[in-house]
Amino acid sequence: MPATLQQIMLAPDIRRDVLTDCFTLIDQEMSDLSGVSGTAVKLAFKTVNTFLPGHVYHMAEILLPDMVAQLEPFWADFTTSGGSAFGDYLAKRGDEVAQALLTVTDDQAAASDRPTVIKAYRTVRGGAAKHVQNALPRVGDLVTKYAG
């Protein structure tokens, strides 16, 4: 039986590399943002990093298992359907995948006791699905790097 996405990407000897690539993906997505909503995201990112240095990257570590769990059914469907690129597969299901991934951050924000983080998250949440959808090709490439 093939390993699950969680078994592959969260394996102790792989997890640190996955996180490093997640941090790179976050930085790439931040630098690609433009327009009003992109400026709002960059401002929220800067605000959180100013008041809580390293918080975003710390949260990536915490969120990774739940994000991978949300991607698992999409990966399973992709591998059985014989698709050519996981990033393309995710992008074609952009709204569905974005909403699945945003449930993880929504749950985390709801449980946070940090007003700065909560305020920053609420500021950008309205346009978050669009930004997540834009990141899906890179997310797919990251997953494929380890599981493909």
**How far is the first residue's CA from the last residue's CA?**
15 Å
- What is the total number of structural domains? 1
**How many E-type strands?**
0
The Rg value, from CA coordinates, equals 15 Å
Strand content: under 5%
pLDDT average, as an integer? 90
The level of helicity is over 70%
The major pleated sheet works out as:
none
- The number of helical segments is 8
Shape: globular
Structural class: mainly alpha
Order of helices and strands: HHHHHHHH
The residue ranges in which pLDDT falls below 50 over 5 or more consecutive positions are none
* Quaternary: single chain
Can I get a quick summary?
The protein has 148 residues and is mostly helical. It contains 8 helices and no strands.
Write the layout of secondary structure elements.
Layout (H helix, E strand, L loop, with lengths): L4 H5 L2 H21 L2 H17 L3 H27 L4 H7 L1 H18 L3 H11 L2 H20 L1
Helix pairs in contact: 2-8, 3-7, 4-6, 5-8, 6-8
Description:
The protein has 148 residues and is mostly helical. The chain has one domain. 85% of the residues lie in helices and 0% in strands. The protein contains 8 helices and no strands. It has helices at residues 5-9, 12-32, 35-51, 55-81, 86-92, 94-111, 115-125, 128-147. Helix 2 runs antiparallel to helix 8 (128-147), helix 3 packs antiparallel against helix 7 (115-125) and helix 4 (55-81) runs antiparallel to helix 6 (94-111). The radius of gyration is 15 Å and the shape is globular. 18% of the residues are buried. The mean pLDDT is 90.
